[in-house]
Amino acid sequence: MKPLPALLSALGALVVASAALSASAAELELEGPRLRVSGMLDGSATKAFIEQLDTGKVRVVIFEDSFGGTAEAAEIYAKAIRASGVNTEARGQCYAACAYAFLAGKEHRFGRGLQVNGLLIPVAMRPTPGDLQSRWRGDEAQKTLAEFTTATASMTAAAASSLPVSSSDASSAALSVPTAVASASPPAPKENWQPDHGVLFSSTPTLFGRVYNTYYCDGSQGRDVSKCEALSDADPFKLGVLTP
Fold this sequence. Notes:
36% helix; 2-enoyl-CoA Hydratase, Chain A, domain 1; alpha/beta; disordered N terminus
């Protein structure tokens, strides 16, 4: 088995490689009873997504390499998933907006295979042991989504009113705040979220099965998750982030 630093470096490399492929708008692909969603949850595919779930033929929604999106889209996806009662699966990386849509599934699991899976849930500050025990279970997950939606929506509005954003950058700008805006008006603690800031649950394949780890990333590490702080007693199954 590779040592932990090597596993983290491999995870970081795969995240960077995947990011280049996932910067586009969300794409939907129906695979029998499984609906695969890839790319940013920017709202461009929400209507088609809801229509697919309304057919009653979808049993599992698969999120594949989605590095975020808008808070509004996250809420739409989450509500549609919750209303339809489908299960969710994360393949590769599922960040921010994607993470909350993923948590809305009746059952939510990581995909199988040789890929490294990562689920990054944005948080305003380092979670306490109490947060870890209850924050992402049932109704608590919905409350956290509401905080995430309020925070990122206000941040997006401030950024949009202060600086122009090109159409090619629109999807990523929804979950980021330009430095000039952030320094001009410091956000409230609940709104102090930035890209790559949150709790990262990872699953790495090895010869002896998958290894699950949990980290707190303060955002300063960028895509190099080897710089994130490992969290103990944060098994994703025990916390309800993943279901058996």
